[in-house]
Amino acid sequence: MTDIAKLIENTIRADVRAVGSYHVPDSIGYVKLDSMENPYQLPEELRAELGTRLAEAALNRYPVPSYRTLKDRICSKLGVPEGYDVLLGNGSDELITILATTIARQEREAGSKRAVVMAPVPAFVMFSRSAQFAGADFVGVPIKSDFSLDLPAMLAAIAEHKPSLLFLAYPNNPTGNLYDADDMVAIIEAVGEHGIVVVDEAYQPFARVSFMERLPQHPNLVVMRTLSKLGLAGIRLGYMSAAAPLLAEFEKVRPPYNVNVLTQVAAEFALDHLDVLDRQAGLLNEERTRLAAALAALPGVEVFPSAANFISLRVPDAERACAILHGEKVLIKNLSKMHKLLANCIRVTVSTPEENDQFLAALKTSL
Ligand code: PMP
């Protein structure tokens, strides 16, 4: 009999064996405020129409390889500059993996060090995980205690490590704030032709600011977005735009047919009704204002400014708050263990007024 433990030791990379899998808790029966989803579905009549379109989709065929119709719709509806195209991913998670894979393992000029992926931290965990699995080194540069970029530290780290890839989430997850745009430009310019800077705009539908129109000024800039937060997390569609020669390189690494036919049909349909999704985002922004004010009025709670569909806050005891919320069937994210800047911090998705009130009531009992 083959010894499975020996088999794993002989075949699976040591760094993969050492980490846990990306943990997503089961949420059945819970008020789900841990994943930044839009709580609203498409209106019923639109869902019925979408059902008809999906029923007509040719599931016996592979997707159209160029995805031209969907890409054209994204380019025209979502502010991609004239002359720029997009590359599609199975969520922006896949795009992050493609980016890291494309740059990693290259021999560095000085010695044969591995490629470096850099990001201000705390940041979205997939930036470091994808770098690791692609065989690159990840260098995280701490942000300041007010969650703004530490520009001198970033510039020093860029000079020292010459990152091939640098991620800036705008707004940042898990903190929720927008970095200063001038600081970001300084970083993009400092990285220059040595590296690619990805501005991850996953929360752009709520922040309503973008680096997309700056693409022509910065050949090393990639702007990445997703339809997930806008209300289509279930279909898994991310897109990124960059100068054509750069996109052509990423295209080589993209798995064929990575976006499936059902996603393609649903995304094209949803983009024809973007006004509906935008209105939902507007409602969530109003709720964010209300929820932030209600939280700020609670004793011992520090609320951080957010331009996204979630709010990060510091409570007296995050462990206790999460346990009590869990007992009340409300799922949120405990950020405490992510980074020392986030001690006793939690993150909550902005949801419907009813679910936000449920969260508020449960949180109050924990204070
Ligand atoms: N970027 C950031 C900053 C995120 O917070 C997330 C989701 N949590 C993603 C990318 C991934 O989004 P998706 O794969 O759903 O497109």
Automatic annotation (TrEMBL):
<dbReference type="InterPro" id="IPR015422">
    <property type="entry name" value="PyrdxlP-dep_Trfase_small"/>
</dbReference>
<dbReference type="GO" id="GO:0030170">
    <property type="term" value="F:pyridoxal phosphate binding"/>
</dbReference>
<dbReference type="InterPro" id="IPR015424">
    <property type="entry name" value="PyrdxlP-dep_Trfase"/>
</dbReference>
<comment type="pathway">
    <text>Amino-acid biosynthesis; L-histidine biosynthesis; L-histidine from 5-phospho-alpha-D-ribose 1-diphosphate: step 7/9.</text>
</comment>
<dbReference type="GO" id="GO:0000105">
    <property type="term" value="P:L-histidine biosynthetic process"/>
</dbReference>
<keyword id="KW-0808">Transferase</keyword>
<keyword id="KW-0032">Aminotransferase</keyword>
<keyword id="KW-0663">Pyridoxal phosphate</keyword>
<feature type="modified residue" description="N6-(pyridoxal phosphate)lysine">
    <location>
        <position position="229"/>
    </location>
</feature>
<comment type="subunit">
    <text>Homodimer.</text>
</comment>
<dbReference type="InterPro" id="IPR004839">
    <property type="entry name" value="Aminotransferase_I/II_large"/>
</dbReference>
<keyword id="KW-0028">Amino-acid biosynthesis</keyword>
<dbReference type="InterPro" id="IPR015421">
    <property type="entry name" value="PyrdxlP-dep_Trfase_major"/>
</dbReference>
<dbReference type="InterPro" id="IPR005861">
    <property type="entry name" value="HisP_aminotrans"/>
</dbReference>
<dbReference type="Pfam" id="PF00155">
    <property type="entry name" value="Aminotran_1_2"/>
</dbReference>
<comment type="similarity">
    <text>Belongs to the class-II pyridoxal-phosphate-dependent aminotransferase family. Histidinol-phosphate aminotransferase subfamily.</text>
</comment>
<protein>
    <recommendedName>
        <fullName>Histidinol-phosphate aminotransferase</fullName>
        <ecNumber>2.6.1.9</ecNumber>
    </recommendedName>
</protein>
<dbReference type="GO" id="GO:0004400">
    <property type="term" value="F:histidinol-phosphate transaminase activity"/>
</dbReference>
<keyword id="KW-0368">Histidine biosynthesis</keyword>
<feature type="domain" description="Aminotransferase class I/classII large">
    <location>
        <begin position="30"/>
        <end position="363"/>
    </location>
</feature>
